[in-house]
Amino acid sequence: MTEWIEKLREWLETPAARFATRLFRILFFVAVLGWLVLKVRAIGWRQVLDALPTNPLFYILFLFMFLALPASETVIFRIILGGRILREFPVFIRKRVFNSALLGYSGEVYYFLWAQKHLGVPAKKILLGIKDNAILSALASAGVTSALLVAFLLSGRASSVARWLDSATGGLIAGALILAFVIPVAIRLRRQIISIAPRVALTVFGIHVVRICLVVLLQATQWAVVLPQEPWTVWLIFLTTQMVVSRLPFVPNRDLLFLSAGLEMSNVIEGPREAMAGLLLAGGALTQGSNLIFFLLTSIKRRSGTPDAEAEAEAGALDADEEIGPRPAR
Fold first, then answer.
1. Which residue spans traverse the membrane (predicted)?
2. What is the CA radius of gyration of the chain?
3. If exposure means fewest CB atoms within 10 Å of the residue's CB, which of 103, 107, 246, 315 is most exposed?
4. Looking at residue 133, what is its pLDDT?
């Protein structure tokens, strides 16, 4: 088994493997985009465009959700590795953009290369810090997702989802989501050891739990702003799906994948389906647009001598093919 893994790692470093990885990202993006076009077309383009959110609160809540992860990780890595919060916040915004827009773990590679240049911390300590943060984030995400699943089962909405699962598409997506939630947690936590002190680990875990719960509440509020007539149990369905999709390993643009699953499940709402489609499409467009905007904003102001280091870190993130640790939850 070890020999096979070594051969796989050697192959992943070859130009052919890198080309295959990039090709997979492109094909995956095209497939999901095509699926979204078909789903929106079935609902009606005009109906969806007319149903796009107009309440400013929808977009304000999105901004807080987008910045929640980089803000929390800035504090976490200040605790683990040291550093200055104001300087590193833009770095973690860019880390989030890489993980969201590119292949998973590219953000961790970017941060590792950046930290080597700027923090004066041994590479091993940086890697252990990234690994510990990722494991604790995975545990927090799994805990919150499990709580959402329990709440969903107790809500009495299982029958409406069962009708959706009768379709072949629904069954395939649901099966993939279940495997995506169970397998990564089981594999990644096997033989993993937290290297930081227990008190620090508990603090980091608590920060992740608070951040994830806050994002869940903000997400439910954002949806309720657009469709206030829907019961909270409806949002449990979408929140649970969103959390599970966020745990999918090595999948580019998870937000587009959730958008596709959400459109497929939009028939469970009691209100107009085009309103839910408009809500989901607006959220997906905001995510992709924010990735571009914040990437550009964090590129404007650089410290003297920083551009070369930043360029090297970004190049490493773009070429990342190996996993550093479990992917942080949204």
1. 20-38, 58-77, 134-155, 167-187, 199-220, 275-297
2. 20
3. 315
4. 93
